[in-house]
Design brief:
The protein is mainly beta and 142 residues long. The chain has a single domain, classed as Lipocalin, CATH 2.40.128. It contains one helix and eight strands, in the order H-E-E-E-E-E-E-E-E. It is globular. The chain starts with a helix and ends in a 13-residue tail after the last strand.
Length: 142
């Protein structure tokens, strides 16, 4: 089967238009880096790595127990205000469950409210920027 040149050209133009409108992944913004919550009394904690830029945020993370065993993982996507410090993240778990983080950011902390599928109420949460750029769970070798 021979495809007419005009139809082939139209298909290439449409494919190019579609590809060019996709946003590039965020890079190099103020929130780029590794973040971690303080351990709760049980010793569990949350840790994630973010990439940010142009007001957008994306990343991956997980919840860990006191022994550094990963309990679950999640993906993060959202938006941040470059001038007003507002931060909104959607937290997507592998089973399709979704949580949220809504708060503010400063140079070395994220402060706000967090929900997860197993906890339908908002809880106050604070995440600290990890120095040294490492993303190793507590208790695990570097």
């Amino acid at each position: 089967m021979v495809i007419p040149r005009g139809l082939a050209l139209l298909a290439l133009i449409l494919a190019g238009c579609r590809a060019s409108t996709a946003p590039a992944p965020p890079t190099g913004g103020a929130l780029t880096g590794s973040w971690m919550s303080a351990p709760v009394p049980s010793g569990a904690y949350t840790q994630f790595a973010l990439q940010s830029g142009a007001g957008r945020v994306a990343g991956t993370g997980g919840d860990w127990d006191i022994r550094g065993v990963k309990l679950d993982s999640f993906d993060l996507t959202g938006f941040y205000g470059e001038t007003d410090s507002a931060l909104t993240l959607s937290v997507s778990y592998p089973g399709g469950e979704v949580g949220n983080f809504v708060g503010r950011w400063a140079a070395d902390s994220l402060v706000g409210n967090w929900t997860a599928p197993a906890q339908p109420v908002w809880i106050s949460a604070k995440f600290y920027r990890e120095s040294g750029g490492g993303w190793t769970p507590i208790g695990q070798p570097n």
